[in-house]
Amino acid sequence: MANRNRFLSCFSTLLVLIASSYPVQADQGKDLFDKQCASCHTIGGGDGGGPDLKGVTEKQTGDWLVRVIVEPDKLTAAKDPHQAELVKKFGFEMPNLGISSEDAKKIIAYLATAGGVAASSSSVPAPEKTELLVTPELIAQGKALFTGSKRFAKGGAPCLSCHPFTYPGISGGNLSIADLNKSYKKMGDAGMQGALKALKFPIMKNMYADRPLTDDEIKALMALFKDSAAQKEGTGGFKTFQLAGGILFFGLLLGLALYKRRIR
């Protein structure tokens, strides 16, 4: 009887310790999420550079979530169907950030409390969405930064040294690195801003570790990518507007010349 009571007492203590450790894990997970994940993911704020993670702990198993955080590259190589679906939707594989299994579990604990179905009322609110206003000046700045004719303020390498990109006045890049022509279309304002702010992709992580981009530099590059996407979709872009304006101006001059000849 004494042994049984001792066992029950130890078991109860263990349950209390496990239960009390979960909030601690969640608090630690919030710090990790803010540092490693928030640039691309929201919790209840919609998709960005990556999927909205609200309720993800209800949709996926803990083991799968640990794997996608710790070794997304191996999950892709294993042809995991859900990972393949995410890569297809967002256009790229989540980078391997070097997060340990222990830290991944802390992030998952935070996601369970911040974005779980039971806690949906306390989900992180959607950030205010402001659409980037593209101007010729911003495009010119972005183009200069991309090609390296203007250096980044903190000395980072120009984008063209690695990334291929086709745009009037820009060509080249390493064809083995991600092509940025479709990047804006896939990621949108929020995703592109998050990616440029975090620079978590493996090569970029090392190159820009102590050389982050400034907010103005990010805005200029986004303007370039957004204008490129608009041109390729035929929805306008500044080059299209310039061409239309030139044609209109030429038409007015021609009409004026014909009118003058007529009244002579």
From TrEMBL:
It holds the Pfam family Cytochrom_C. GO terms for molecular function: electron transfer activity; heme binding; metal ion binding. Keywords: Heme, Iron, Membrane, Metal-binding, Signal, Transmembrane, Transmembrane helix. InterPro entries: Cyt_c-like_dom (IPR009056), Cyt_c-like_dom_sf (IPR036909), Cytochrome_c_Oxidase_Subunit (IPR050597). Residues 24-115, 137-229 form the Cytochrome c domain. The chain crosses the membrane at residues 241-259. Residues 1-26 form the signal peptide. This is Cytochrome c class I. It comes from Trichlorobacter lovleyi (strain ATCC BAA-1151 / DSM 17278 / SZ).
